[in-house]
Specification:
By secondary structure, this protein is mainly alpha-helical. The chain has a single domain, classed as 2-Layer Sandwich (Zincin-like). The chain is about 55% helix and about 10% strand. It contains five helices and three strands; from the N terminus they run ααβββααα. Strands 1-3-2 form a three-stranded mixed β-sheet, covered by helices on one side. Strand 2 and strand 3 form a beta hairpin. Helix 2 runs parallel beside helix 3 and helix 4 packs across helix 5. The longest helix has 20 residues. Bound molecules: zinc ion (ZN).
Length: about 120
Amino acid sequence: MKAAVVSLILDSRPEEAIALLSKWYRVPQPKLGVGVFEGRTKGVAAVYSQNTKKILAAKREYMFDPFVMVHEFYHHLRSVGGKHRGTEKQADKFALEFIASYRRLASSGGHMADQTASSSSRTV
Ligand SMILES: [Zn+2]
């Protein structure tokens, strides 16, 4: 599941990745969007709004960054399941697990390895 989520995002299908994540964790699906957000935004790729249940990316390209998307989904998951949105450290760890899982699959060969190579240029 984790590798599939990363693969979908790299394939420019972040909505499907979020749908898969939501189904897997049995939480309502957060909305995805691009836009400006309030507050301290310097260097911020995306934010999760607890009020609107929306993941907002600063730029469209961040919607295709698995680390950013999975990280924000973690905040959604935590705020739906509890009172706390989780720490940044936990969100990063959560996201990195997905990417590690994808890399393990990619390095075992097959067409996923090709995908990693071609998409690495646009996920900086
Ligand atoms: Zn965060």
